[in-house]
Amino acid sequence: MSLRYIGFAKTVLIALVLAMTPLFAINIILNQYAERRAVTEMEAMGQSTIRRAEEAISSTVTLLQRLDRDEVQTCSAEDRVIFEKLVVENGMIDAIGLADAAGRRMCVVPDRELAGQTILPPLRSDGPLVGIGMLDRNYLGARAAVISWDLKDQTRLFAEVTPSVIALDPGPEYLRSYRRSELRLGNNLLWYSVGGYNSEGSEPGTALTVQVSSELYPLVATVTAPVSAALIVVQDLKVVAAAACAGVAILFVAIGIWLSWRPESEASDEFAAAIRNGEFVPYYQPVMDIESQRLRGCEVLMRWRRPNGVIVSPGQFMAYAENNGHIFGMTRHIMRVASEEVGDLYGDNPDMKISINLFAGHFLDREVIADIRSIFEKSRISFQQIVVEVTERHPLQDMELARKIIAELQALGVRVALDDVGTGHGGMAYLQKLGVDIIKIDKMFIDSISSDDNSTTIVDSMVELADNLGMGIIAEGVEQEEQIERLLELGVTAAQGYYFAAPMPADEFIAFSERIEDEARERERLAAEAAAAEKAAAEARADDEAA
After folding, report:
1. Nearest residue to 51 (alpha-carbon basis) of 490, 420, 450, 363
2. How far is it, in rounded angstroms, from Cα 175 to Cα 171?
3. Which of 12, 249, 326, 506 could share a disulfide with 19, CB 3.0–4.6 Å?
4. What are phi and psi for residue 93, nearest 5 degrees?
5. What domains are defined for the chain?
6. pLDDT confidence of 201, banded at 50, 70, 90?
7. What ranges make up the beta strands (E) of 263-333?
8. Neighbour tally for 141: CB within 10 Å
9. Among the listed residues 129, 144, 122, 233, the one whose alpha carbon sits nearest the alpha carbon of residue 191
10. What's the pLDDT band for 191 if we cut at 50, 70, 90?
């Protein structure tokens, strides 16, 4: 008997053994999946709370620093007018004032009784410039925070941050109904807590606990939930598994037979063949100037066009490509094809930008710099028109090397954008350490910007941060006109999303750009005619009055 048939027999035997106890195996898998998913959700809940707290603190510190820089440092009537204006303009701030060395309010806007109450710890000669404390005022489990800035004259500027900034309750419903979330500052000072679950006294293994710490401030978010809550998400699946036991047994046997005959490298070979055959193609999503309604450029997105014409979205193959190293060849191919397909369009429009997505592995060596040089140095697309996007969703393994690679790209004239801002691992650390030129606001914040004050506050903070750091800002995932109006109010002028256009092949993108330019010229012509008519009318009125 050949080794292949022996292997086949062993595979079928293993499949049959597994098929005898499918429910046991499925229950273990589902329980583990439920706990992993719950932990991931809880980490996301903690990260969301940390991000909101970091943004509130950073925005408030920036405001206090600006007051110090502009010498608005007293309780004079003129300074109080400025305090009042800032309180009105900043939805996250309830009050601004001055405190003395003992931590007592000297004045506060809006006016309220001072009563000698101590709101800050006494000043120390070796104390930090920024102080953070808590007030008794609370809302939905969140306390009002007080953030101070030392003026170095025995007084401190302070701002009271409204509790509603932090009093959000993220996460899926099946966890929020049972968990407890806490945010603590420094030496166990409670800022926010929600939920009544308490794991003390619980049996080992019956509770899940996740802690997330801030990289910028002494903040720790803790989320605790019973394991039983996590298992709710798989209850229906367990019922289905029990009902389909016979079918699962057949499936195991079929999979065993298939695996015994299918070469292990077949999937990888198929993927490599798709790369060689040019099946991975660029699609182009326009980036628009929402003030002038002109085209600013595009983001190049990858699609898998199978020989039968079916288009496969990146979500179905990108993780495999990254994990198996295929992504490097695919990215080179996409850049090369894009330079050929839209090179003439970009050569005729030198102000347009083309964004190319890179992943964390591209920042582990300098090969991506050589790729960009070799592909674009003879293309009509100049280095100054290229933007490379690095996502915040996947952590960079070597921040120092990544910074050097980014600096070399910027030396060529290539700009660097941080994608998915506010959703991943990097946060403020990426903005500080990587020296990016552009930040892209993730769709999750844009979706609720016209209906959720907290999303508006976060976007407003991002815009202010971008302005302070001299960076560009682009909104992603715009789908509604109300979102555009709100973005314009907040000072965002560049956006992309299905409201303007879905990602499209090169010929459609070139036609789209020509149509947008024709429409812009027509608007300018009509505006010029209207201005000329208004001028002529004004001159006629002047002549009549002179007569």
Report:
1. 420
2. 7
3. 249
4. -110, 125
5. 1-262 (no CATH), 267-504 (3.20.20.450)
6. low
7. 280-289, 294-305, 311-312
8. 18
9. 144
10. confident
